[in-house]
Amino acid sequence: MGEDRRADIIQGGDAVQIVRKTLGLVDERLVNHGERVGYMLYQMLRDSERYSEKEALEIFNLGVFHDIGAYKTDEIDKMVKFEADNVWEHSIYGYLFLKYLSPLKEQAEAILFHHLNYDRYDKVESDFKDIALMIKLTDRVDISMQSHGGAFDLAEITDGVGSRFAPEHVELFLKTNAKFQIIESLNSGAYEQEIEEIQKKLVLSPADIDLYLQMLAYSIDFRSEYTVTHTVTTVGISVEIARLLNYSAEDKQRIYYGALLHDVGKIAIPLEILEYPGKLSPQAMKIMKTHVQISEDILRGAVADDVCEIAIRHHEKLDGLGYHRGLSAGELTEGQRIVAVADVLSALRQRRSYKEAFPKEKIIEVLKEQSEKGKLCPAICDLVIGHYDVVMANADSSCEAFLSVYDNLMLEYERIYNLVSKL
């Protein structure tokens, strides 16, 4: 699909905004900290004359997401209170996540070392020391300010020159602050408007937009090993059904994005509910169901309306007894029905801590039952049943590629932790 056709689905700035907004639902304080760090980085970079505007924008996003590894760990609360004592765990996870599952892979190494002191860099080889050290400085400036009611402790920064911080970066920060009133903007909140202006400058290719949205979907699964394949499988099944229905490339793309984003609201659901080993209680199920409304809050106005509706209607049923709006058959398009079937099929084939994946015979039985009861679309269920092996083979192929990345990521975490913890 050409870029002009992709553009009506989602804009580049909107893609990044969706990611920021969604992660903010886990802990707004952590995203707010990232945005403040990204803002300071951008101002320093535009004043340094060593980086192009394009590079400055990419590094701004790197700053915004520099603590994304904390979403995989149990240290978010400590981090946002600035009490975390093991900085390597979230740094390694963040590095690996951005390296394997984001459009920021080229600069991701800076995240690995963003807590390393300046005087320890003689022990590491990295092409991204400069960026890592700037992130370290701006990270510390914001931590200090938020710990002291907005007051900027100049002595804390200058006392660390040559040991914790690079002398040239401290000099650049002080010069940039005098020129752009960074501290004043952070305290007044004016930086938020400036961030919006920075975002407007961001022009992403269709491939990068896709990577940011994949990054979002994976960040949800990244929190739980039990849900790590669900989104990927749902996407694979949805696209395969659309192919069997002879959808155009553009229409398949809309199905793809609807499926990719269908569970973004789960980022706000507590892990103990997402990973509960068995049937949820009525109270827990009520909380789980809120993920659809949360998804709508995130996506509405940021993606094309039809893509949004595909994403948020995957729990609606033809008989009107689904959620979150209780829509019925006449109100549900074929594209929405496709993702609804794919979501159920993905769940049935998913292995969890408390159950194995259902065999083919059982899955077909459930699809027939749901079709006959007026829950799922009979035509799409029949299509899947008639082409079951092909549909699942192609979906499994998509999953295997992702699981290979995920498994390598976990293995690499152990290797890197053993190396860098010695620093």
Automatic annotation (TrEMBL):
<protein>
    <recommendedName>
        <fullName>HD-GYP domain-containing protein</fullName>
    </recommendedName>
</protein>
<dbReference type="InterPro" id="IPR006674">
    <property type="entry name" value="HD_domain"/>
</dbReference>
<dbReference type="InterPro" id="IPR003607">
    <property type="entry name" value="HD/PDEase_dom"/>
</dbReference>
<dbReference type="InterPro" id="IPR006675">
    <property type="entry name" value="HDIG_dom"/>
</dbReference>
<dbReference type="Pfam" id="PF13487">
    <property type="entry name" value="HD_5"/>
</dbReference>
<feature type="domain" description="HD-GYP">
    <location>
        <begin position="205"/>
        <end position="400"/>
    </location>
</feature>
<dbReference type="Pfam" id="PF01966">
    <property type="entry name" value="HD"/>
</dbReference>
<dbReference type="InterPro" id="IPR037522">
    <property type="entry name" value="HD_GYP_dom"/>
</dbReference>
